[in-house]
Amino acid sequence: MELPRKRRKMPVRLASLLAALLTMTCLDHGMAASVGEEDILAVPSTSQDQRGLELAGGRLWVSAFVNVAFETLHGQPEEINLDDTGVLARWNICNRLSIFTALELEDFLGWQDGNGVYFAEKGPAVERLYADMSPTPSTTLRLGKLLTPFGIWNPIRRAPLTWTVDRPLVTEVSFPLHVTGLALSHKATVGNWDIDSDLYGQPGGELGRFADEKAAQRALGGRVAFGHQIPYGFATTGIEATWFKDLESDETEYAVGADLDLSMAGRLLTSEVILSDGKVDDYETRWGAYVQFVSPLWSRLFGIVRGEIVGLRQSEEYRNLVLGLAWRSQNDRWVLKLNYQFSGHAVDGRTDGIGVAVSSLF
Amino acid sequence: MRAAPLGLVFLLAGAPMIALAGNVASSSIAIVVNLRSELTDLDVEALRDLYLRRRALLANGKSVVPVNLPADDPSRLRFSQLVLGRLPAELSGYWDRLYYEGVRPPIVLPSAEAVRRYLHADPTAVGYLFEDEVNESLRVIAVFPPHESSADPPSSR
Known about the structure:
The structure holds two protein chains of two kinds. By secondary structure, chain A is mostly beta strands. Chain A has a single domain, classed as Porin (Beta Barrel), CATH 2.40.160.10. Chain A contains three helices and 20 strands. Chain A has a 16-stranded antiparallel beta barrel. Chain B is built from six helices and six strands. Chain B has helices at about 5-15, 15-20, 45-50, 75-85, 90-100, 110-120, and strands at about 30-35, 65-70, 105-110, 125-130, 140-145, 155.
């Protein structure tokens, strides 16, 4: 059967667009070059400084991440699963153009009390897939599927990068977690201030939507963040807003937020406040916030305290207190997390209980 | 006996980090490039952007390859404090986030000799050394004198 004429032309147009971008961004400035001198001693000598595998003369970088989590929560079956597991790859085509992808296996393998062992029902999902173009040194045009640049937690989100087993509820239910479209990012440095801004839009549906994630049919949003050195540390604060047509409810929703990320003498303070009219389970959220504090306790052992609250339209507020420990290996590649959470009442399956996870970014 | 408040425990646990920050060597740091490099000078902001991978290109579209020394090297500690405003250990979380986007930190060379040889071979590279470690195979484009803070501009050569 012949495809409709309009659809048949799409791959051709897309290929033409990519070819044009490649021509404009690469040929004028030369392909990425490696030094290739034999006497260069490019030996990674510190654990923190190199991860992943470099191929094709350094133009292709591949890495992997893995997370095994066990949770025993009040009123819910015990469960252990291999989740948040996948690969990362970036191909630097030339100085101004690169392609990045993150492929992820959702609930790849697990065991649940009463239900036994289960396996993933489908293959890897596209968590991110985009092309980065740099029309100027401080500007990046990103085309494809990306993590919504809203707040602090959503862009990092991955288990090895976070300090707790679960993310704060408000960062999961207030806005679409991914954007499939175009994003413009600008990084400015003025004096000792870092000023980063993002503007993004999603004209249609999401590419390879994750089953249980909040997603949009269309979206528009932006974020501005200011970073500055402080005594013994660095502070970043940001504000953001997004308007979107929710995929499930078919209604136009919004979320606006402010965040603070403070690192000082080895301690980390992270906080986000979000106003929204999103939905979670049978509830409508109105606002939410969390504050998380992380401090070294002894050697590579850290203590974590996080308080969160979400205002719900049809119910009393959801409150959650998380106390945790995290141990990071000497090379920072492995993280072992132990949490206990005290939840006011169950929302999104979150109740009192223990969570343990082992995560790594290779 | 009353238990120490949790905040006090956390505060004491971070004391070694503060002490380390105060003990970083205070010799002059020279910013060095290949003799054929197109770079003639770099201000603190540009250096910081390059070393934090906030940008990888110059205004003319040419790429720059920043090179680092090991995280415990005295000149890296000094450079990191002066230019990046943070010690290498304090940037651990920052690099974790960038790794997750496929952005890698600058390459790490094992010694000052390795930096000299790399810069001698690569006209697009930029590095830093203590001023007395610089030889005639390199060009100095800026110097951070001892006890200078990152708020002060480096002297250009």
